[in-house]
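User: I would dearly like some help making sense of a protein record. This is the protein in question:
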Amino acid sequence: MTTLTEYLDYSNAPDQLTGGVRRIPISTPKGEFSVWIKRVGNNPKIRLLLLHGGPGATHELYECFDGYLPTEGIEYIYYDQLDSYYSDQPRDPDLWTIEHFVDEVEQVRQALGLNPDNFFLYGQSWGGMLALEYALAHQQHLKGLIISNMVSDVQGYNRYAREVLGPQMDPAVFAEIRQLEANEDYENPRYEELLMQHHYTEHVLRMPLDEWPDSILRTFKHLNKDLYVHMQGHSEFGMTPNATLGRWNRSADLPKIQVPTLTIGAAHDTMDPKHMEWMAGQVQHGRYLHCPNGSHLSQYDDRQHFFPGLVQFLRNVDDGKF
């Protein structure tokens, strides 16, 4: 068990002066760049690398982890992917691919010295897609995998948005959203207004907009919209058809995942929680964590279930009791 003194000790570490912040060089076919990371704490057995959503969002999505994981002695590492706000931004769409981001995560892993004795990978939303893709390519380096608030089939995500969540809205609102989408009028301010008031506050973060945490407001402010639209589309209300992730489907590959895996779903999520539960049964060693009060950002709106479940998984895997 790591003591509090050991956990907080940054002495003689290369990132002591910066409080855990450093930049990691990344090699790409388009040149050399760097990405921003911040390490919090020391734990040689549990090192949790955080993959943010978007694509094109930031590590700020996870700032609430500071209020929960240090007391558990868990080391975690914030990380802004290339072209996200705190990292280099070459803004080259040729790099906006799953293959690039998987390779980037692997370069980050190597730079940080993460290995099967300590490397837990957490991804939420797009980060969950990336975590799954990384595991399919490099699971020999993992100790555990966490896929949060992301299904394994984009078409299932789209169906859930259109057939389940949409009809829960006021019919006039849902009809107006569908019409704006049919017209591809995504830049119309009315489109964002409708989604923020009737979808995001119900299924992305279940708080009134004026109560959203500053970390989430900064994430939206810092979003790389070009990257987001290119890969995901124009909103969290399903993927836009021409987005590059629009046909992504890894459901058939889930049984290949051998490492202990936690999937996290929420009752009010943009993703179908039943699908998240199904995924836990498809991998070889899976567990499902349900957040009954949560939505897409359940670390904020159902932290009472999210953090105890996440910590228990990390502890169980570390103790060999998973």
Observations:
- The longest strand covers residues 31-40.
